[in-house]
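User: Okay, second chain of the day. Same drill as before: sequence in, structure tokens out.
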Amino acid sequence: MGAVMICLNVASHDIQLKGFTNIDLDESMKPDLVYDCTKLTEKFAVDTVDFIYCAHFLEHLTLVQAQSVVNDFYKLLRPYSMCAIVVPDYTKILDLTPITEVEKVIFADGQHKILFNTTRLLNVMQSAGFTTIATHFDNIPWVRFNSTNSKIDVSWQTAAIGIKHPKAEWK
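Assistant: Same drill. Structure tokens below.
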């Protein structure tokens, strides 16, 4: 029998993914694990996680905290495992109308601390050690369904998938 895959949905909020350990600090979201997502290396061992999904969490941190979290993602992942990160992209948000929608997404009632775009997300992931990163998903329809199964346009997001490659050693 094969090893059990460890897949984490970091800062899951109201999105519970089947087959993942859904982690959030807010117990009212009913995650599998109520835990501080900035301290995952205290809960999970290095090189043990197969996949990490993190959506709409990094923008709630300072840039230093966000970099630290992504560094931890890299440490937790097994070699050749992947991490997918989704954040609001301020360059796409500016095209929203009315302006109140722009403010709603950017400021999030004071919850957002930093702005992201594809370049910043790529830089944070590269700084963490990810060397293979896919960032363009223009053919993916950015649509989410709410609790009443109505479509919500979330085309103002950007995403990146990074693969942890072990460092090559030449003999």
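The first helix runs from residue 63 to 76.

User: Thanks, on to the next one.
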